């Protein structure tokens, strides 16, 4: 090879997925009690295979092997939420917060589940905690703006909507907030 040519080969997405799966399978063959390998297998099962049940089993195995790892609790909580087990997801997110109270992702997950369960005041408090810990993340703002509209405070939603990074989300949220503001004004005039 001449100067300037790379010896590294480019991989397609499918080749990358296959290589990742092979690496995780090899790690598990060498050590079936490797928690991180089970967690990564869960991600493969969830994000590539769309096998939610197998992903959940992998996340749970990772948690069994390393119960003090807050990331594994978050993975298992998110998996429980996908499977519709919100009570369990709530418990797992609380566990993640207890394990690492400085993790914005754990607080955010807790707030998201509380939001889904209609516990809007608690969700608001926990999402604000997530924002304090990671001000540049917009997922908390997305949920907070919806909470404010649901609480009849659409004017409070507007600054949160500005923090949402993607256009579709902002457009949707502005539509519901401005609609709520218009309905609120009409009620005040009559």
Tell me what you see in this structure.
Helix content is 75%, strand content 0%. It has two domains: 22-133, Alpha Horseshoe (Serine Threonine Protein Phosphatase 5, Tetratricopeptide repeat), CATH 1.25.40.10; 138-190, no CATH class. The protein has 190 residues and is mainly α. The longest helix has 23 residues, at 167-189. Residues 1-6 have low confidence and may be disordered. The chain contains ten helices and no strands.
Task: Please summarize what this structure is.
With 190 residues, the protein is mostly helical.
List the defining traits of the structure above.
disordered N terminus; 0% strand; Serine Threonine Protein Phosphatase 5, Tetratricopeptide repeat; single chain; 190 residues; mainly alpha; elongated
Query: What's the Cα radius of gyration?
Result: 21 Å
Mean pLDDT: 92
SS-based structural class? Answer: mainly alpha
Q: How many domains comprise the coordinates? A: 2
Largest β-sheet summary: none
Can you count the helices? 10
> Which parts are unreliable, with pLDDT below 50 for 5 consecutive residues or more?
1-6
Number of strands: 0
CATH superfamily of the largest domain: Tetratricopeptide repeat domain
Residues in β-strands, percent:
under 5%
What distance separates the N and C termini?
80 Å
Give the H and E element order: HHHHHHHHHH
């Amino acid at each position: 090879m001449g100067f300037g040519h790379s010896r590294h080969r480019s991989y397609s997405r499918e080749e990358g997925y296959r290589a990742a799966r092979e690496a995780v399978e090899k790690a598990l063959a060498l050590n079936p009690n490797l928690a991180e390998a089970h967690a990564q297998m869960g991600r493969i099962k969830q994000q590539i295979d769309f096998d939610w049940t197998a992903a959940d089993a992998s996340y749970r195995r990772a948690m069994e092997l390393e119960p003090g790892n807050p990331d594994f609790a978050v993975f298992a909580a998110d998996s429980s939420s996908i499977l519709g087990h919100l009570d369990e997801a709530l418990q797992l997110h609380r566990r993640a917060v207890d394990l690492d109270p400085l993790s914005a992702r754990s607080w955010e997950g807790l707030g998201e589940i509380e939001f889904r369960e209609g516990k809007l005041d608690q969700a608001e408090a926990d999402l604000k905690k997530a924002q304090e810990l990671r001000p540049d993340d917009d997922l908390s703002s997305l949920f907070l703006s919806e909470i404010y509209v649901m609480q009849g405070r659409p004017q409070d939603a507007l600054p949160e909507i500005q923090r949402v990074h993607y256009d579709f989300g902002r457009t949707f949220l502005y539509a519901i907030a401005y609609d709520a503001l218009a309905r609120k004004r009409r009620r005040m005039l009559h």
